[in-house]
Write a structure and sequence with these properties.
Radius of gyration: 27 Å
Largest sheet: 8 strands, mixed
Structural class: alpha/beta
Number of domains: 3
Oligomer: single chain
Number of strands: 14
Distance between the termini: 28 Å
């Protein structure tokens, strides 16, 4: 293009006359290059506008067994609308964020430490939105406010709430209450009877392996953590605002509650094993709990399985009953129409524990066995569903993922041409690859600690391919940039268009 412009410039100068000064030549060239630059800019702007409101959506994952299934569900909905989606661990995404084209960056909680992450994403041209993955379970309003940072909410462009209950709290903290949208959570989209067939093959495989089973979901990461006691306390102090005078007392209170709960879980599980009610007891620890603790507790029993592999939903669907205390999986099992038993009392310093409000309460071994023997168990009472209405939204057929994407696409910031970076130079694409450059040369994988590896177990290409097959989706192509950083995009779109949508400069895709 530069050579053509130079020829045109000199042609104009020749027509102007044989005697031309160096200054006039320089000015003429400057005018032509300036005009060409304006035309190129206009051409790029028009191209971006033709792309409409398509963009790159970044979905970081903290705990894959809890979040991956719903993240892929949201990604599939986004790809169907023409977006490209990046799924990966938080550290890898933060390290490589500048290599992706501007779009939408999603965070999973409202802690103070997220503010810098949000500002970093916005500095790179991203719109920032988020929800609190654990916002459904709140010890108390006062305690929840220690997790919600005004700085973080103010930095977000959009704040998504599970229901009216947490939306009311968030609006009081947020600088602009209009930013808070009640949209539910993509995890809830998978929790109704019509979705059970998604897990049919996995449930069949589980039952063939273990027979009839009762599932104990453990959520006691304060007492039985992979981290040391000091590391757990330091982690809590780092992300929340706590009164030092009462912090130690509350931590000890919670640890004692969890120790007593674990003892009751073990006692009830052994009582079931001594009966003939089921074939197997399955213990599913929280991803950051020590599995060896449970293995040691049941080392003398052959029909006990301790596993937290994969997503919990197939295990919930296949269980004869789901046993928990203060765990979101109890609520998920209830919404799936399963038998739910809350074992033990509520944590002592909690004002209200939503997961413990559904299902049947058992305080000891006798009441627990009696409950299991009854046939008149009300799986999904209308009263319990009514009590959830304030806390959970988007439980209808439309779901949460569609509401989130509608909200993003309705925002005018996404449609601004300046927000999307285009490559200046195209790369020759191969038929089956986006680019022939090896991914390892372009995108770096940040080393993970053992604690992070435990949380991210299952975040890989094979796991997402299995989920896509499970959903039965078409026209979605999956590419692994590195081991835990993956991209989903529309397989019908030409490679160079996907590359332009995804990356601000050549990257290993």
């Amino acid at each position: 293009m530069s050579l053509i412009l130079i020829k045109k410039a000199f042609k104009t100068l020749i027509i102007a006359g044989p005697v031309v000064t160096a200054k006039k030549t320089r000015n003429a060239l400057h005018r032509y290059f300036k005009k060409a630059k304006e035309k190129l800019k206009e051409k790029r702007t028009l191209h971006v506008q033709r792309m409409g409101d398509r963009c790159t959506i970044i979905l970081p994952v903290e705990i894959s067994r809890r979040e991956l299934l719903s993240r892929v569900h949201l990604a599939v909905e986004a790809v169907a609308r023409g977006h490209a989606v990046v799924i990966g661990d938080v550290k890898s995404i933060k390290k490589n964020l500048g290599k992706f084209s501007s779009g939408v960056y999603v965070i999973k909680d409202f802690y103070e430490i997220r503010a810098r992450e949000i500002l970093n994403a916005k500095a790179k041209g991203f719109m920032a939105v988020g929800w609190d993955e654990e916002g459904l379970i709140r010890i108390s309003e006062k305690a929840y406010l220690t997790k919600v940072s005004k700085t973080t909410l103010s930095a977000l462009d959009m704040v998504y709430a599970w229901g009216n209950s947490d939306a009311e709290i968030l609006r009081r903290v947020c600088d602009d209450p209009a930013k808070v949208k009640v949209v539910g959570n993509p995890r809830m989209d998978l929790l109704n009877n019509t979705k059970k067939n998604l897990f049919a093959q996995e449930v069949k495989a589980i039952k063939n392996k273990v027979g009839r089973y009762i599932l104990f979901n453990s959520s006691f990461s304060m007492y039985n953590s992979l981290l040391s006691q000091g590391e757990v306390e330091e982690k809590i102090r780092r992300v929340t605002k706590n009164d030092p005078a009462s912090f130690t007392a509350r931590v000890e209170m919670q640890r004692k509650f969890e120790a007593d709960s674990i003892a009751l879980f073990i006692e009830c599980a052994k009582a079931i094993l001594a009966s003939t009610l089921v074939d197997t007891v399955v213990i599913r620890p929280h991803p950051v709990e020590r599995k060896d603790f449970w293995l040691e507790a049941f080392k003398d029993f052959g029909n006990v399985i301790v596993s937290n592999e994969g997503n919990a939903l197939p295990w919930l669907v296949g269980a004869e009953a789901v046993v928990h205390n203060s765990c979101t999986t109890g609520l998920e099992a209830f919404l799936l129409g399963q038998r739910v038993i809350v074992l033990g009392g509520d944590p002592p310093h909690w004002d209200f524990c939503l997961p413990n409000s559904v299902g049947e309460r058992c305080m000891d071994v006798e009441s627990f066995l009696s409950c299991l023997k009854r046939d008149d168990f009300n799986k999904r009472s209308s009263y319990a569903l009514l009590s959830l209405a304030e806390h959970l939204s988007a439980l209808d057929h439309r779901g949460s993922a569609k509401r989130i994407l509608d909200s993003i696409q309705d925002d005018q910031r996404i449609k601004q041409p300046s927000k999307i970076k285009l490559q200046k130079k195209a790369i020759k694409a191969e038929p089956n690859l986006m680019c022939s450059i090896p991914p390892s040369q372009q995108v770096e994988a940040k080393p993970l600690s053992d604690y992070d590896i435990a949380k991210l177990e299952g975040l890989n290409k094979e796991a997402i391919e299995k989920i896509l097959e499970q959903f039965g989706v078409k026209n979605v192509k999956l590419h692994a940039i590195n081991e835990s950083l993956l991209v989903l995009f529309n397989s019908r779109r030409r490679p160079e268009k996907n590359r332009r949508l995804l990356f601000s400069r050549p990257v290993g895709l």
